[in-house]
Structures are given as structure tokens and as C-alpha cells.
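Quick one, C-alpha cells below. Sequence please?
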């Protein structure tokens, strides 16, 4: 039985791109297609092979809307070992991102982070940033992302305005926490990436290495 073939407009709609962009992928050899007469036709197997390295295949309009963690889990199920995030020498598959973000979500819930709480993430672009965001969403908390080069005064302002219950920071930002009192009054947990020093003990605040949590 011949597999169903899709037209260019149908495939462009599924991928959420313009038809001209779709044709560019075909011309560049990134997406396989069959030319019948003057028309291009596409097999679902070729569309699915194309999507992991370029964009997520949008769900049909009639299907149930999916949250980002659900999309990750579904993609991990379909493309388990394919690379999801590559950052320098670090590389993680969809399955690994799903598993590690599950661990981080569990760590947040274990520390008393509740749905609707805000979690401030101050990390450079990295695999850990992606894992942290998905873990926060899985815990049904709210991601407040800030750049790694944030200045101390701006950082304090963010803490005052958002009143987060948890922080995910690198060691350089963690240094800024020393001596802070009032801006941290809502914090229950701090997760530090590349923690190479011991932070001062604080009542009711758990400080942990992010790498240790994800092991």
C-alpha cells in the first residue's frame, strides 16, 4: 500500500513555516521530497526525520493542546536518543533532558516549592538552563529567567519584585547572595551550578549543588 503523500501547503502548515521556506529546505537537501509533474509531495517518514533537528512538528488543530513539558515527553518518546541540546562539549538527548528535568522538578517539590511559585534562573545559555526551565515547568512553578551578567543592584530588584521561593544560579551569582537578608526572605532553596565553595548557612534555606541534584 502506497504511503500517503502530503502537499507542500499541508507540510508547511504542519511545520509552522511558509511554503517558500519549505521549498528552500528541499532545495538544500535538508528535507526529502518527491516531484510529481510540477508538484512536490512529501511522505510522513521524511517529515518526521526532518523535524527533530529543525523544529517540533506542530500537533494537528483538532488534537488536544500540549504544554511544553508534555511536548518534551512526547518528543523524547519518539526520538529518544536524538540530540536535543548541544552547548560546547555538552550534549544531551531528548530522553536525558526529560529525565534530568524530572529530577529537578522532584527536587523543587521536595524543598516545598508549590505550583504558582516563582523560581529565578540566572544562568548562561547552557544545558543546565534548559533542564532547569523544564523542571520548573514540570513542578508547575513559574520561570523568571535573567542574564548571567546581571548586576547586584538589578539582581536585588528582581528578587524584591518577583519574591521567588527558589533560585538557580551559577557560582558567580551565588557570591552576590552573601550578606543579603531581606531580599531572600521568601527563598526556600538555592541551587548553584559549578558550586566550588560553601555558602554561608541560612535558616530555612536549602543550598545544593545543581550537578548533585541532577546526578
Amino acid at each position: 500500500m502506497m504511503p500517503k503523500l502530503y502537499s507542500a501547503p499541508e507540510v508547511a502548515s504542519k511545520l509552522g513555516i511558509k511554503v517558500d521556506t519549505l521549498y528552500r529546505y528541499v532545495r538544500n537537501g535538508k528535507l526529502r521530497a518527491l516531484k510529481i509533474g510540477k508538484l512536490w509531495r512529501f511522505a510522513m517518514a521524511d517529515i518526521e526525520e526532518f523535524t527533530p533537528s529543525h523544529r517540533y512538528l506542530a500537533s494537528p488543530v483538532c488534537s488536544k493542546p500540549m504544554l511544553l513539558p508534555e511536548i518534551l515527553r512526547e518528543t523524547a518518546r519518539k526520538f529518544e536518543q536524538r540530540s536535543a541540546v548541544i552547548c560546547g562539549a555538552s550534549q544531551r538527548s531528548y530522553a536525558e533532558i526529560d529525565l534530568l528535568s524530572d529530577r529537578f522538578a522532584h527536587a523543587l517539590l521536595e524543598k516545598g516549592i508549590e505550583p504558582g511559585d516563582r523560581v529565578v534562573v540566572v544562568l548562561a545559555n547552557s544545558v543546565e538552563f534548559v533542564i532547569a526551565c523544564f523542571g520548573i515547568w514540570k513542578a508547575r512553578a513559574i520561570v523568571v529567567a535573567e542574564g548571567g551578567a546581571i548586576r547586584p543592584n538589578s539582581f536585588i530588584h528582581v528578587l524584591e519584585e518577583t519574591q521567588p521561593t527558589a533560585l538557580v544560579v551559577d557560582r558567580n551569582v551565588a557570591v552576590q547572595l552573601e550578606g543579603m537578608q531581606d531580599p531572600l526572605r521568601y527563598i526556600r532553596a538555592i541551587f548553584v551550578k559549578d558550586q566550588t565553595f560553601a555558602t554561608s548557612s541560612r535558616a530555612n534555606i536549602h543550598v545544593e549543588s545543581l550537578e548533585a541534584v541532577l546526578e
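The longest strand covers residues 39-43. The radius of gyration is 22 Å.
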